[in-house]
């Protein structure tokens, strides 16, 4: 079975990571979740769920301080890692290669193993430091994919906007979902 690491950082938009975990349950994908401490705080402000409920959506949950977890090793085979949402701090750590948690270590390992890393960066407006870090992670092989609404999909709810954004980034791992609305396709 294929594996995918889902990182949820403390940026606003934790529902992106949660929705990714929900959508992946319909696929033969083993999910490994790591959440920053800030993400767990953000959950309480943005969702009517607990961090424990979100952890239960994953096949395996890894505490953010456990830098000895399986996902911190290149020998642990995965499709890569999705960080949804990705805070500017998280992106900065990944860009520098100086990691302070399992979340950023797992992304660093995926990049060194030349695996796909997709960062749903959630910040605006951006200053030059943010943009330089985006360039740096892109040059390292990551994909910066901010969750931008696809209005051609004619979403009828906020949940539909989130689902479309997440389905499109899962496409980047070769994971096609029936929920994905595609341009010119009905």
Write a concise synopsis of the structure shown.
By secondary structure, the chain is α/β, with parallel strands linked by helices. It has seven helices and six strands.
Please describe what this structure looks like.
This protein is an alpha/beta fold and 186 residues long. It has a single domain, classed as Flavin prenyltransferase-like (Rossmann fold, 3-Layer(aba) Sandwich). The chain is built from seven helices and six strands; from the N terminus they run E-H-E-H-H-E-E-H-H-E-H-E-H. The protein has helices at residues 14-24, 37-46, 51-55, 88-96, 102-112, 128-140, 158-171, and strands at 2-8, 29-35, 60-61, 80-86, 116-121, 143-144. The protein has a six-stranded parallel β-sheet. Strand 5 (116-121), helix 6 (128-140) and strand 6 (143-144) form a beta-alpha-beta unit. The longest helix has 14 residues, at 158-171. It is globular. The termini are far apart. The mean pLDDT is 96.
């Amino acid at each position: 079975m294929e594996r995918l690491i889902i990182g949820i950082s403390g940026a606003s938009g934790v529902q992106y990571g949660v929705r990714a975990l929900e959508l992946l349950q319909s696929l033969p994908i083993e999910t490994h979740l790591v959440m920053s401490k800030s993400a767990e705080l953000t959950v309480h402000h943005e969702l009517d769920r607990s961090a424990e409920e979100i952890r239960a959506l994953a096949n395996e949950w890894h505490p953010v301080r456990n830098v000895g977890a399986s996902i911190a090793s290149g020998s642990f085979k995965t499709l890569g890692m999705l960080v949804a949402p990705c805070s500017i701090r998280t992106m900065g750590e990944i860009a520098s290669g100086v990691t302070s948690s399992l979340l950023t270590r797992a992304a660093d390992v995926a990049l060194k193993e030349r695996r796909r890393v997709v960062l749903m960066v959630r910040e605006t407006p951006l200053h030059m430091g943010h943009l330089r870090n985006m360039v740096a992670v892109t040059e390292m092989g990551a994909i910066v994919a901010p969750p931008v609404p696809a209005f051609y999909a004619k979403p009828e709810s906020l949940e539909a906007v989130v689902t479309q954004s997440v389905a499109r980034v899962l496409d980047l791992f070769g994971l096609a979902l029936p929920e994905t609305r595609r341009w010119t396709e009905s």
